[in-house]
Specification:
alpha+beta; 191 residues; three-stranded antiparallel β-sheet; 34% helix; 9 helices
């Protein structure tokens, strides 16, 4: 409806994944969308650097359907601690471009290996982490039973014995260096 009312806002509406949508091998997108109005600290918007009232008028003129959509939530959005320069913006983020790259995504609460490959540029909520990589071999290794055995002993356990693959520990997971033949075979199987 927002895009039908204002096609200009289409570039700000992105598919995103929740933790439960990140499954083994392939994400299962549930049709969820995120409106991404990056902070003026990251993007030079038509309203960047303007006083609040002028900036809000510029936002309304540039993206009228988004402005109308956000308006009923204005007070709550103003109270957020994680906003950008203006109430309709998200906080500053140094890695927005990383979401557009091929990446290995994983659930932050796992009951089984839940590593997936995303080349569609999905965004994610706070229950998903990712490694910018176009590496199906690594994806294959992370989803193996032997890696689950390792992770069960290495990663922190949560309620109901779920594993928490926290970022700094995931970086330390031992991934063997494959031969060219092993890599090619694994990538074929993962596909």
């Amino acid at each position: 409806k927002l895009v039908a009312a204002d096609p200009n806002c289409e570039s700000l509406i992105h598919a995103y994944l929740r933790g439960q949508d990140v499954d083994r091998w392939c994400p299962e997108w549930a049709g969820m969308w995120m409106i991404v109005t990056q902070s003026s600290s990251n993007v030079g918007w038509p309203w960047t650097g303007k006083p609040s009232s002028e900036a809000e008028a510029a936002f309304q003129q540039t993206y009228p359907s988004l402005y109308t959509h956000f308006l009923p939530m204005r007070d709550a959005l103003i109270k957020r601690q994680d906003q950008g320069e203006y109430w309709w913006e998200l906080r500053s983020c140094a890695y927005w471009d990383e979401f557009r790259k091929p990446k290995l995504m994983y659930q932050e609460i796992q009951y089984h290996p839940s590593f997936t490959f995303d080349k569609a540029g999905h965004l994610a909520n706070n229950k998903v982490s990712f490694i910018t990589a176009n590496d199906l071999f690594v994806l294959g290794v992370l989803n193996t039973p032997v890696m689950w055995w390792h992770n069960w002993r290495y990663l922190p356990h949560m309620k109901d014995e779920a594993l928490a693959p926290v970022g700094y520990m995931v970086r330390e997971i031992p991934i063997p260096r494959p031969t060219d033949e092993t890599r090619a075979r694994a990538e074929e199987l993962v596909k």
